[in-house]
Design a protein that fits this description.
Blueprint (H helix, E strand, L loop, with lengths): L5 E4 L3 E5 L4 E5 H5 L4 E5 L5 H8 L4 E11 L4 E8 L5 H14 L4
Antiparallel strand pairs: 1-2, 2-3, 3-4, 4-6, 5-6
């Protein structure tokens, strides 16, 4: 079965959406090279965080990583690295959803 991932752009955010969950990040910060607020609408296992960190696109700031059991949302702050682009982030998050059977 093929993954059903949809990318939605709005004024502030890019949302990578699948039938099971979604990931959202604020593109306004990214365009200026600022740290990027990001929300994962699932509880990430360590392998998910390692995949993001090892991508070379962004680093995760652990001081600003929080998971809310009440809402089921993990908020992380991503630090853009040299060569960052929204397209690379979309590809990374789309691949992440597929790899971990969240799409």
């Amino acid at each position: 079965m093929e993954a059903q991932i949809r990318v939605v752009h709005n004024e502030a955010s890019i949302i990578i959406d699948s039938p099971q969950t979604f990931i959202s990040f604020d593109q306004r910060y990214a365009l200026k090279g600022y740290p990027i607020p990001c929300e994962l609408f699932f509880k990430p296992i360590p392998e998910v965080m390692m995949m993001i960190e090892s991508s070379g696109i962004v680093e995760i700031d652990p001081d600003f990583t929080r998971y809310s059991t009440e809402s089921g949302v993990c908020s992380i702050l991503l630090i853009p690295q040299t060569g960052y682009s929204n397209e690379k982030m979309i590809r990374l998050f789309s691949n992440l959803l597929v790899k971990f059977n969240l799409a």
